[in-house]
Amino acid sequence: MHQTTIIDIAKALCISKSTVSRALTGHPNVNAKTRDRILDMAAQVDYQRNQLAISLLTNRTSTVGIMVPEFISFFFPKVIIGAQEELARSGYNVVICHSNESYETEVANAKALLASRIDGLIVSHTKETRNFDHFRSFQRKGIPVVFFNRVCEDMDVSKVTVDDYHGAFQAVEHLIQTGRRRIAHLSGPDTLMNSRSRLAGYHDALTKHGLPIAPELIISYDLNLDKANIYVNHLLNLPNPPDALFTINDPTALEALSVAKRRGLCVPDELAIVGFSDDPVSALIEPGLTTVSQPVHELGQQAAQVLLRQLLTEDNTFVAERVVLPTKLIIRGSTVQTSTNSY
Amino acid sequence: MHQTTIIDIAKALCISKSTVSRALTGHPNVNAKTRDRILDMAAQVDYQRNQLAISLLTNRTSTVGIMVPEFISFFFPKVIIGAQEELARSGYNVVICHSNESYETEVANAKALLASRIDGLIVSHTKETRNFDHFRSFQRKGIPVVFFNRVCEDMDVSKVTVDDYHGAFQAVEHLIQTGRRRIAHLSGPDTLMNSRSRLAGYHDALTKHGLPIAPELIISYDLNLDKANIYVNHLLNLPNPPDALFTINDPTALEALSVAKRRGLCVPDELAIVGFSDDPVSALIEPGLTTVSQPVHELGQQAAQVLLRQLLTEDNTFVAERVVLPTKLIIRGSTVQTSTNSY
DNA sequence: GGTTTTATTGGGAACATTCCCAAAATATTG
DNA sequence: CAATATTTTGGGAATGTTCCCAATAAAACC
C-alpha cells in the first residue's frame, strides 16, 4: 500500500515538490496562498512525513536507544520514564530494548540499534555481559553512550549511578548499631559493578566497626529469584547462623523475609533484613522492609541529561561525565521493632 | 561522523557496490573469493547496514509499535514481553511507546510511529481517549492495528482481551456466596471498555442472586491512586456501609485494604475485598488479596500472533479477529478467613 | 578455435526527503 | 517605463541500499 508523499501532493496541485516541502516544514519563502492550499491538501490526504527518508538524508534520527536487562521490576521502567521525559523535552524519541538478562539478546539488540542509526544510547547491561565490544562499536562510530546503574568500568564513557558503596555501608552500619554481630550478605554476580560496590560497602562497614569478615556469610548469586530461598536457608542452617542479612536488592530481601516466616523466625528480633532499592512492595508488607532507597526517576533524568549534553557537543571535545546520586536508608520493621504494625 | 557504507567497501576493493551488496546479503551469484574479501573488509571496518535506506527502498521496517498507557505496573511490561517474544521469532523489532495516560501524548506518539513507518501496531489506549482518529490513520494507510486490554469498540480491527465480564461476575458471585449482601464497586472511568465490562459483570451477578443494585455503592473513578482512599472512606462512611468491595484493579484494592486497616476494620470479617489482575504484591501482603487473575503474558502473545497473521496476509482479505482469554478467581484472605497467615 | 552457455560484475533507477542554486514572477524604485 | 530588488518557484543532487538488466569474463561444447 502506497503512502502519500510530497510528490503526490505536488502533482495534485501542479507545483513542484520543493514548494510542498517548504510549506510543510514551515520554511518562510513560500507564498501564503500556496502554503494554505498545500496544508489543506496535506490534511485532506492525511499526509505523514516519511521519517526514514529524512533521517537518511540528514544522518540524524532524533532517536535515542535505551537498553535494559529487564523491565518487570519497578526499577527500570521508572528510570526509562525519567529519561524519556527529559529526552522528549529536547525532541528526541526513544526506542526501548530489553535483553531479558541474556548476553546474546543484548548483542543482537545492539546490532539492531546500530542499523537503525540511533543518535545515542543509554544502557544498563545484562548480568551475563563480560565482553563490551558491542557497546564499543557505538563509541567508535561517534554515537555517544551513557551507562547507568550497571556500568562498564573499562569503557571511557559517561556513567550515572547511585552511591552503591555508601548505601551498602550505611545499611550494614545500621545493622551493627542496632546490635547485630553476624551479618550475612546475599550478593549479586560479580559481573555487576554495583554488586561489587555494595559488597565493598558491606566489607568496609564491618571492618570499621571491628567485626570480622566471615566468608561463609557472603554468598554471591545470579539474581535468579527462584534460587534465593535456597541460599537463605543455607545461611540459616549454618552451625552459627547470621543474626542479620543484607541483600543485593529488595526482591531478594522479600524472599528472605518469606523464608524467615516459614521457618518461624521472628523478624527483626531473630533475623534482621535489609534490602536495596526501596521497591514499592517493601512499604506494603509486614514487617516493612528496611532498605536503601535510590532516586530512580532522577537516575533516568541524569542519564538523559548527560547524553543530551554530549549530543549537543558536535565536535569531539566532550569528556565523559561521572554522576553519582545519593542513596538514603529507609528504616522499617525488618530491622527495628515498631510499636504499630499499621501503615 | 561518517559511518561506513557499502560504497566505501566497494571503493576500497575496487569493485562495484552491487557486488558488495550481493556479498553482504548472501546472494549466491558472487564469486567465492570476492565474497570472502568483501566479508573480511566489512568485518574489519565494522560495517553495519543502514536500515533506514533499506526500509525506504523496501517500504518495510520490520518494526512493530506497541503503545501502552503506562508501564509502571507489572501488567503492561509483561504483556509487552509476551508480544515481543512472539514478534522476535518472526524477525520483527519492537518500539515501545507509553502515553502516561495522556491523550495528547498518545496522539503525538501515533504521529511519530506513523512517520517512522512501522509495519503494525499493538495498542492499549489511555483512559482519556475518546477520539480514535489517530488510530484510524493507521487503518486507512493499510497498517494493521491490534487493540488489547483497553479496546475501542467502534473500530473494525482485531481485539484481544480477557473475559472481563465473566471475571467480574465470578468475583461478585464469590462475595455473595460467602454471605455478603451489600457489595460496593469501585469502578474505572467509563472511557475504558474493560471497566464497563467489569461493571456489567458486577451488575449481572447481583441481579442473578436477587440482590438490589444500590447506586450509592457504585463509584466510578479515574484510576488516580491518590484519590482511591477518598472514595473508599466515602463508602465506609455511608449510613449503611458495604460489607464487601470489588475494585477495578489490584492497586485500588490494596489502597482499600490499607484504608480498612487504618480504620481498624477487620478484613475479611467486616469488609471483604476483591481486586482484579493478580498483581504480584497481592500474594505477598497480609491478608492476601482475593483477585481475578488474567493470563498477562499470553495476552501479549496472542496480540502478537493476531498481528503477525495480518501482516502475512498481504492482500486485503484479512478479517478482524476477536480473542477473549479466560480469567480465574484467586481466593485469598481478603474474602475468606484463612487458618494460617503464613506464606 | 570459434561458438554457445554459464558465472560474475557493473551501471543506473528507485525509495522520500531536504537544500542549494538558478530561474521566473512580482514588487519597488527612480 | 525601465531598471533593480525582492519574493516565489522549480530542477537536481544527495542520502545508502536493493534489484533489474546489460556487459563482460570464464567455462564448456562441437
Automatic annotation (TrEMBL), chains A, B:
Pfam families: LacI, Peripla_BP_1. GO terms for molecular function: DNA-binding transcription factor activity; transcription cis-regulatory region binding. The keyword Cell division does not apply. Gene3D superfamilies: 3.40.50.2300, lambda repressor-like DNA-binding domains. Keywords: DNA-binding, Transcription, Transcription regulation. Residues 4-58 form the HTH lacI-type domain. InterPro entries: HTH_LacI, Lambda_DNA-bd_dom_sf, Peripla_BP/Lac1_sug-bd_dom, Peripla_BP_I. PANTHER family: HTH-TYPE TRANSCRIPTIONAL REGULATOR GALS, LACI-RELATED TRANSCRIPTIONAL REPRESSOR. This is LacI family DNA-binding transcriptional regulator.
